[in-house]
Structures are given as structure tokens and as C-alpha cells.
User: What shape does this take?
Amino acid sequence: MSVYGNVKSQERHSHAASSRTDIFSREDKQRAADMLARHLQWEKNPGDNMVSWTASLLFALVYIFLRASIHNEATLDEIQLLVVDTSSFPKGVFMRDLDLTSDFSSIDRNLQNHKRLRSKQTSGLYYDFGEYLSQGALKIDGRCQIVSARSIINRGLCDIRLEFKEFSNWKQGPEFARWASAVLEMREVFYCDDTERQGISEKGMLAALRISSQLDLISECP
Assistant: This one.
């Protein structure tokens, strides 16, 4: 397990003075809205002052495979899961993406499209992945725990849900477009009737305990 110091936005890394300005205090509202829209669309932008977080452990786990298998951005040894104790931060440090989108959607059409996407339903489930945003630099030393993706997998992640093994074979192509839908499909089991729900195997339960033993802070959101 590791410790972390600060998490910084792209703009803060460049030491821009504007990285210390709250998005609601920026004089150029159109530029602020454009920055937010580009961030939510995953566009690389040196002027991006936002950092994304998720309240969904499932989403974070699937995202690991997206980065490693499809984007090929880093190896499983290099990718780390960072779990933050949000209760130790002042209110407003983490802002829900949908709230920010609503505040700026009247200015930017792309944010209007993002809002519609988040309102889209598949099998009765929304494309809402518990995304929250922070700004600039966030000091998380002593407020977080870190574990490598490789460690999570080695402790039996694929024994909990077989889909994770399939995700490890993802390649650039059709899978890239459906990874968000894969999260929704895995969530469906949580909304089934008890008679339809398949219980976790003993092997899967032991794997879950091994993984959770690495962290004191575990997300409860599927």
C-alpha cells in the first residue's frame, strides 16, 4: 500500500495562476463551460483545471481495464486504485458532474448533450457512474489509501465476476464503445428479484475479502 501527496489538474501542473480560481468565479463563463465540457469528453487540454473521481468502485475497476487494455496508457503494475476518505474534506471540494453540467449547460451545447447522455436509460439503469470533480490541487496525504491494479487482480478479482477476465482481453475496437454499457450490465444483478439473483461463490467471497483487506475504506456503491 502506498501514500499520496497531492492530486493536480493539468492546469495546476503548468503552474497557471488561473488554476487557483474556482470555476464559478471565472470571469469568462463560456471558457469555463468549454473547459468543463472538454474534461467530461476526455479531451486532452493543458488548461483543464478539473480532476475526476468516482463514487462507484465497480466503475473504477472496469476503468482499470479500459486504460490498460484499450488505451494502453499504463501496465496493471503502474495503474493504482486511489481510495479517498471524502468525509475529511470540506463540503464542496467534490462536485457532482451532473450538478456542474446543469449549472453551465445553458452556455455550452456539449454540456447539454452530456446531460442528456447521463439521463439515458438502458434496461432501466441510468448512465450515471457517480462522477465527482475537484479543482486545481487536492492534498490527500493521510486521507487516502492506494493499491495497485495488479494486486487487486492477483487477489482474485476475476473470481468475483467472470466479466473482469473478459475485460482483460479488450482491444481497441468495438469494446471501447461499450465499456460504459458493460458497467450497467454488471449492475443489473443488484436490481434483480431475490429469486433471479445469483449468489457469489465461496471462491468469489474469499477473493472479495482478500481485496477488501487491503483497504479500510471500501465503496458501497455498485
